[in-house]
Design goal:
Structural class: mainly alpha
Oligomer: single chain
Number of helices: 8
Helix content: over 70%
Distance between the termini: 29 Å
């Protein structure tokens, strides 16, 4: 794979998103009110780069196998990192932590199996992206200390849970379909 296919603008944005774990790590080391806002700002930057990398990959015809790996990997690493830290700080419900980590671990393992069998990575789709955005916005509400009984908080909380299950089911269906076509 040539370096131009790896280091295009779209993949670079995903790589930047992956590197955002470093400043988030420093912010969580001393979790003051300022650090909460810092992690929230990192989340906003991550969300913008996530939206931009997919848009630019399609617009500039830069969809690569590497991009299909780095984009969801960056999403999963940053979200799991933030969720883990919020869990350790007792800022999110235990079940929410376990749902996200389980979903991401199962999709990662399933993705490795599918990629090995078919020789390529299943790309992200809109339901997966919507799930990441819903989780990111819900985490943003937690970081900004939005009242947990407010309507926007509750809507994002329940929407993200529904999307966690829907995206996992969607991934299973896509993987089964691709694997069944491969065996034909």
């Amino acid at each position: 794979m040539s370096t131009s296919k790896i280091f295009n603008i779209s993949n670079s944005l995903s790589f930047i998103r992956l590197l955002l774990v470093v400043p988030a790590w420093f912010a969580f080391n001393d979790f003051t009110q300022f650090a909460r806002y810092s992690v929230a700002a990192i989340g906003v930057i991550a969300t913008i780069t996530d939206i931009l990398d997919g848009y630019l990959a399609r617009k500039l015809n830069q969809i690569t196998e590497f991009g299909k790996v780095i984009d969801p990997l960056a999403d999963k690493v940053l979200i799991v990192f933030v969720v883990l830290n919020l869990f350790l700080l007792d800022e999110i419900p235990d079940h929410y932590f376990y749902m996200i980590v389980s979903r991401d671990a199962l999709i990662l393992m399933g993705g490795l199996i599918v990629a090995k069998k078919i020789g390529k990575v299943l790309p992200s789709d809109y339901i997966g992206k919507a799930t990441v955005l819903a989780i990111a916005f819900f985490l943003l509400m937690i970081l900004l200390n939005v009242d947990s009984q407010s309507l926007p908080y509750l809507i994002l909380y329940y929407l993200s849970i529904v999307l966690i299950f829907a995206s996992f089911a969607n991934y299973l269906i896509k993987a089964a379909k691709v694997l069944s076509q491969k065996t034909k």
